[in-house]
Amino acid sequence: MEARLSKLNRNEILLYLGHRGQEITEELKRQMEDAVLAVTQAIAPRLVYRVVSLQDGKSDAFTLQGEDIARTLKGCKEAVFFAATLGSRAEQLLMKAEVQNLADAVIMDAIESVAIENVCNNFEQDYRAFLGISGLYLTSRYSPGYGDLPLEVQGQWCAALNAEKRIGLSVTDNHLMIPRKSVTAVMGIADTPRQLRENGCAECKMFRNCEYRKDGRDCRE
Fold first, then answer.
1. Which stretch of 116-130, 150-164, 168-182, 199-213 has the lowest confidence by average pLDDT?
2. CA distances (Å), 200 to each of 12, 118, 172, 182, 207, in order?
3. How many Å apart are CA 145 and CA 124, to the nearest integer?
4. Burial of 121 (0-12, 13-18, 19+ CB in 10 A)
5. What number is the average pLDDT over the span 4-33?
6. pLDDT digits 0-9 by tens, 50-68
7. Distance CA 123, CA 119 (A)
8. DSSP letters along 186-213, please?
9. What are phi and psi of 34, to 5 degrees?
10. Helices and strands (H, E) in the chain, number of each type
């Protein structure tokens, strides 16, 4: 199963940019579209995943800590761990913009954040459909740094996935991933349907300050 990037949602990009519902100037529209074009041309999304057996919510291959992840994986006999990245060219593009044009860099950072989430959502959707053929189900996606699952496990997960060799993704001593626009996550595989964490407004980091929600709108429209 390959990494897949679909059309990027402009409203999501605006939310990352701190847009408060004000009118968007033609200049900003052009700047954003130019940045979207540059980023999508640079992106080379890559993904690696591994299905492992679980025993009482634990894995021999992957470190799992915390009560939140235990609840997520409760009753699952298997789990799929994955790592995804936009690739080194996307990282280089962002670094170049940070030196040459800070305004472009801020916009590109927002676009790349939306893009890596897009890749992860597409993999989750594709794998969920794949399992459905066999009558199996996925739990919600869970990443290091969520809840009480510590960010420190990120390096161990990438090592267990052989992510550096397979997709060029490494982890620093400070538990940060390079390229920066990368994600690691796990989803439990269950025999019965599971209640999923909503991917809508309630789960969004912009929930409290979202002007779309205040106006009764949805950024995904």
1. 199-213
2. 12, 14, 31, 21, 9
3. 19
4. middle
5. 88
6. 999 999 889 999 999 999 9
7. 6
8. EEEEESS--PPPP-SGGG-TTGGG-HHH
9. -65, -40
10. 8, 6
